[in-house]
From TrEMBL:
UniProt-annotated stretches for the region Disordered: 1-34
InterPro entries: Rad60/SUMO-like_dom, Ubiquitin-like_domsf
Sequence ranges assigned to domain Rad60/SUMO-like in this UniProt record: 291-363
UniProt organism field: Oryza brachyantha (malo sina)
Protein name: Rad60/SUMO-like domain-containing protein
């Protein structure tokens, strides 16, 4: 083939190709659109950051739940911790999706905790015997943590079946202080439901003595009696078994749980349990003074030493002057769940059977 023929063929090929391109242009590239996946980051006010990749159509509750599981301690991860999640000034709802808020890849969701709800809280469980256990915990921890400590505190033989009461309603171990609207310093009462035996075994001994004296004789006496029998029978039995140099009727006081008892009353009156101890205290050593602590809100406490025969009304008046605004609508005094102020005015420490170290709670009267 000559040179001219090759040029003619080459020109025809180029013309044919140009014509083909003109008549059959390449299709334009399709817009792929946004990815089905998106990576978001949650950041809280303490600088904790977590990152999660999810579908644009997934509910944001998955992201919120993942943050709580990674950033919040213990049981707080399984409850609705106080606070809000926001995206560029808009509150984020858990049932919405990233697409609903027009979120882009690498966007940040900010978490603002409710500072009031996340502050730890101190609670106390008490029972009718004056036993108390106190624990500081998160507002979103289940109450079972506190209730477990109460059961561990109980002596052998004490009833462990019952229910816990807060402000007149029963609370369960799976509840949290937050859902019960509890405040710092609140108390929960344990109410046993087990029926006690008709009999109870009690031990009596003198204060400051061992179970066996210098002569090898026992200085402690244990006796089983009916719960409805007068305790004076146990006292008389003790002195028959363990003679003393003193006239026991005038020289000794019988004390149970730090409080002097009345011999005419019964174990049932004092809710005594198997294994409980009564102690003989020389009456001459009983101090004429008693130290009492008043406990108000926000852990405010003041300790006073007064005579056992002084009226408590003086402490009431003093407390009123110390915090006039906080108690502008008045307050009441509670001791072991009993109201000791109001009308008539409170009596004396002896009348109320107060002992050294006892605490009286000051509760503000709420209006409205």
């Amino acid at each position: 083939m000559g040179k001219r023929s090759r040029e003619r063929l080459s020109g025809m090929s180029m013309a044919t190709t140009a014509g083909a391109e003109a008549s059959c242009p390449w299709p334009p590239e399709a817009d792929p659109g946004p990815s089905k996946l998106i990576t978001l980051r949650v950041k809280d006010s303490e600088g904790v950051r977590i990152t999660r990749t999810m579908r644009r159509t997934d509910a944001l509750r998955d992201l919120i739940g993942f943050y709580r599981a990674m950033a919040l301690p213990g049981d707080m991860a399984f409850v609705d911790a106080g606070g809000v999640f926001m995206h560029y000034g808009t509150v984020v709802a858990g049932d919405k999706t990233p697409a609903d808020y027009g979120m882009e890849d690498s966007d940040e969701v900010a978490f603002f905790p409710d500072r009031v709800s996340t502050v730890p809280i101190t609670l106390t469980v008490k029972d009718g015997k004056g036993r108390r256990v106190t624990r500081t915990m998160h507002r979103f921890n289940v109450l079972n943590i506190l209730f477990g400590l109460h059961y561990e505190m109980l002596p052998p033989g004490a009833p462990k079946e019952g229910f816990f009461v807060y402000h007149g309603r029963e609370v369960h171990c799976v509840m949290t202080p937050d859902c019960c609207k509890m405040e710092d310093g609140d108390e929960i009462t344990f109410v046993p439901i087990s029926k006690p035996s008709a009999f109870v075994t009690l031990t009596m001994k003198r204060t400051g003595t061992n179970d066996v004296d210098d002569h090898g004789s026992s200085s402690a006496v244990t006796r089983t009696m009916r719960r409805t029998d007068a305790l004076q029978g146990l006292v008389d039995f003790y002195f028959d078994m363990v003679p003393t140099d003193e006239e026991h009727g005038a020289e000794w006081d019988v004390v149970y749980c730090g409080k002097q008892i009345d011999g005419e009353k019964t174990p049932a009156d004092y809710e005594m349990e198997d294994g409980d101890q009564l102690r003989l205290v020389p009456a001459s050593k009983r101090s004429a003074f008693v130290t009492i602590t008043l406990a108000g809100v926000e852990r405010a406490t003041h300790t006073f030493t007064i005579r056992r025969t002084d009226k408590l009304q003086g402490l009431v008046d003093l407390w009123s002057r110390m915090a006039p605004r906080r108690y502008q609508h008045g307050f009441i005094l509670l001791f072991d769940g009993r109201r000791v102020s109001g009308s008539p005015p409170p009596g004396t420490p002896d009348n109320l059977e107060l002992e050294d170290g006892d605490t009286i709670d000051v509760v503000a009267v709420q209006v409205g």
